[in-house]
Specification:
Number of strands of chain A: 9
Number of strands of chain B: 5
Structural class of chain B: mainly alpha
Strand content of chain A: 35-45%
Shape of chain A: rod-shaped
Structural class of chain A: alpha+beta
Oligomer: heterodimer
Largest sheet of chain A: 5 strands, antiparallel
Number of helices of chain B: 25
CATH topology of the largest domain in chain A: Immunoglobulin-like
Radius of gyration of chain A: 27 Å
Number of domains of chain A: 2
Distance between the termini of chain B: 11 Å
Number of helices of chain A: 2
Distance between the termini of chain A: 52 Å
Largest sheet of chain B: 3 strands, antiparallel
Strand order of the largest sheet of chain B: 2-4-3
Helix content of chain A: 25-40%
Largest interface: A-B, 34 and 41 residues
CATH class of the largest domain in chain A: Mainly Beta
Strand content of chain B: under 5%
CATH architecture of the largest domain in chain A: Sandwich
Radius of gyration of chain B: 23 Å
Strand order of the largest sheet of chain A: 1-2-3-4-7
Shape of chain B: globular
């Protein structure tokens, strides 16, 4: 049964791993905008094909139930001409085991910015995909989005479980060793 | 907006270059002294501090106090990282771990050798959890006491873990994630505890801990050592309490015998030997820096690999903090079609950066062997000369870390008032600029220190080359000494690269 489970998990992984064609280039960073009226944002800059893309999330660390906004700037690499078509925003769980994806909106540029609002009810790691087309070529860019604080129980729970497991195992093995030693000593005593 | 530390000015770099060239010429033209640097000074002989040093060495109390503080800070890092704000510069987990500890640790080796290992929090916590004793010797049976499998009884597991830690630190970016920082702290605790529960003595410290081994190797250059006061006493000793321990004191955690110890590499400065020796024959001593790397330490194949890895990873750390690194990674990513966090591109960059110094060193060893015409096998010469990488790596590591330590720790004290960063906003531009301008040392003094360290590093590297090559070059004639040229060229190239990296503006960590 375990073998089938392993094969199943492996197949699932193979099935879910080749998702989007293009992802974010570079590690996300957040910044406080020079304009003090703007809340801190999470910001990712990337280049894809002929475009330079700037993705900003307000606030930088959105909580469940809190409304947030994505601002996407898409400019052509030559001369910084902005992209004028529409961008579709989709979202899915950032998980190996989930393929569920939702379209959260399709936006036309507003003053050269594609603005997309969102509210997430559950905390977790999500992937926002911005999709657009240019000269018949599809562009798909994945961005990370974290809602709420990560749970502290994961690493702490695993560590405590491993430590307790090891300490109990060692204790049991040592007890067996001790018993074996006593039995051996008793046998040797008898043999004498 | 990216903030950068200014690079070392040309004038300072030129001074370092002149010293490097002068030292190289001196090595080629003047014979090496046969046994320089033999002096030692036992610290217990110090006029006023001697008694204090003796007390701190012989009694566990002072060390326990520091250990408790260290463990308290470690627990704070874990709690703050897991439950606090995820803004790295507002959470004490990231600021304390990466800005203060990780940078200060290497600087501490310069003064105190492997003292960090004596107060290491994950080892202390593992000890308390597994042995269930604060300091006295635990009864036998708290650990399975298995021998480490023969395949793992070398330093290569520590090297692999060090590469892994670098990958996580710089590739995945755990330095900017309090949560990941706390998770790594927990991982170290689990690894140390499991190893202590399963294997005999402190196998984790001896074979696996990348931090401990880095500290241990750099400690070969430190001016401090824990050694026998009188080697004749050790020669006549029949009980070997330093190795076996006593009724109250644990044995040496890394299987060292005081009478035969010749290098700091595996000494954890725990002081068990000093406390268990019935003759009170173990003490802290001062010595010439670098004397161990150039003369005393014995060459080993696995250790040579670790030292080379240390050099490569140190250079790699510097390289990834250069503003041009990101554009290199982007260019590579576009070429190979990499995506996401560019981990493939990063891994390739890491691999290439590790391979280059290794290939350069192997070539220098090969040339030395052929020019000197020695019958020593390549592997033994490879191990013997690898000590040259230690001062080269250490000098750059120190100079690089000084930038972090001096330029990125402003506001650390304020973090203790709100270690979890509750309700804090990210640094504003004004705060970033203020932090950038407020250095713990004047900028010129920082440049002077960095230049001095680079000069000292090269001086020690040349000393290592001269002494480790003495048997190879035979007599003291000039043509024979020209056979030092490959290793001297290697040292010059590596140090010139380090100097060039220091001259570049360096991205601030946070």
């Amino acid at each position: 049964m375990k073998g089938w489970q392993t094969i199943g998990l492996l197949l699932l992984w193979l099935w879910v791993s080749p998702v989007a064609a293009h992802h974010v280039l570079g590690r996300p960073s957040y910044s406080l905008n020079e304009d003090s009226n703007t809340p801190p944002s999470m910001q990712v800059e990337t280049r894809i094909g002929d475009y330079f893309v700037n993705y900003m999330v307000y606030p930088a660390f959105p909580r469940p139930g809190e409304s947030g906004r994505i601002n996407l700037y898409v400019n052509h690499l030559d001369g910084s001409a902005p992209y004028t078509g529409k961008v579709t925003f989709r979202v899915r769980d950032d998980s190996w085991f989930s393929r569920h994806e939702e379209i959260i909106g399709e936006q036309a540029p507003d003053d050269n910015v594609f603005r997309q609002g969102f509210v997430f009810s559950q905390r977790g790691d999500y992937i926002v995909t911005a999709a657009f087309e240019d000269q018949g070529q599809p562009y798909l860019i994945d961005f990370p989005l974290r809602i709420g604080q990560p749970s502290p129980l994961g690493p702490l729970g695993i560590s405590v479980a491993v430590l307790i497991g090891v300490l109990i195992t060692v204790s049991l093995v040592q007890r067996r060793r001790l018993m074996r030693g006593k039995i051996r000593a008793a046998r040797e005593e008898q043999a004498r | 907006m990216i903030m950068t530390h200014p690079g070392l000015p040309w004038s300072w770099a030129l001074a370092v270059w002149v010293v490097m060239l002068a030292l190289t010429l001196r090595a080629l033209l003047q014979p090496a002294a046969a046994t320089p640097g033999r002096w030692r000074y036992t610290l217990t002989r110090l006029p006023a501090l001697g008694a204090l040093v003796r007390y701190a060495t012989r009694h566990p109390g002072p060390l326990q106090v520091v250990k408790i503080i260290s463990v308290a800070l470690f627990i704070l890092v874990i709690l703050a990282g897991l439950t606090g704000s995820q803004i790295p510069e507002r959470n004490i987990a990231t600021a304390l771990t990466w800005n203060l500890w990780w940078t200060g640790l290497i600087i501490s080796v310069f003064f105190l050798g492997s003292a960090w290992c004596a107060v290491c929090p994950w080892d202390t916590l593992a000890d308390w959890l597994v042995k269930r004793r604060l300091w006295r010797r635990a009864p036998a049976g708290r650990s399975l006491n298995l021998r480490v499998p023969k395949q793992l009884r070398n330093i290569l597991p520590a090297l692999l873990l060090f590469v892994g830690l670098t990958w996580l630190e710089l590739g995945v970016g755990v330095t900017t994630s309090p949560y990941a920082t706390a998770s790594i702290a927990l991982l170290m605790l689990v690894l140390a505890s499991v190893s202590l529960a399963v294997f005999e003595r402190k196998a984790f410290c001896r074979y696996f801990c990348p931090v401990g081994r880095t500290v241990g190797f750099y400690a070969q250059l430190a001016p401090l050592e824990l050694r026998p006061v009188d080697s004749a006493v050790c020669a006549d000793c029949t009980t070997l309490d330093c190795y076996h321990g006593s009724a109250e004191v644990e044995p040496c955690p890394t299987h060292l015998v005081m009478g035969r110890i010749s290098q700091n590499t595996y000494c954890t400065s725990c002081g068990h030997c000093a406390r268990s020796c019935p003759h009170e024959n173990v003490a802290w001593r001062l010595r010439p820096p670098g004397v161990e790397a150039s003369q005393d330490a014995r060459p080993h194949w696995d250790e040579a690999w670790f030292m080379l890895g240390l050099l490569a990873l140190t250079l790699f750390h510097g390289l990834t903090m250069m503003p041009f690194w990101e554009s290199w990674m982007l260019a590579l990513a576009r070429r190979i079609g990499d995506s996401g966090q560019l981990l493939w591109s990063f891994s390739i960059g890491l691999g290439v950066t590790m391979a280059l110094p290794l290939a350069g060193y192997a070539l220098a060893v090969w040339l030395t062997r052929h020019l000197a015409g020695v019958s020593l096998p390549f592997s033994r010469l490879f191990a013997r000369l690898a000590f040259v990488t230690l001062p080269l790596a250490f000098a750059y590591h120190l100079a690089h870390n000084l930038n972090h330590l001096v330029g990125e720790n402003d506001g650390l004290l304020a973090l203790f008032a709100n270690p979890l960063g509750s309700g804090a906003l990210p640094l504003s531009m004004a705060e970033k600029h203020a932090r950038h301008l407020h250095l713990l040392l004047p900028q010129d003094m920082l440049f002077a220190l960095q230049s001095g360290l680079m000069m000292l590093g090269f001086y020690l590297a040349v000393a290592v080359i001269r002494h480790r090559s003495m048997g190879l070059t035979g007599d003291q004639g000039t043509p024979a000494r020209l056979r030092l040229l490959p290793m001297l060229t290697f040292a010059l190239l590596v140090h010139a690269t380090s100097l060039w990296l220091l001259m570049q503006p360096m991205i601030m960590r946070m």
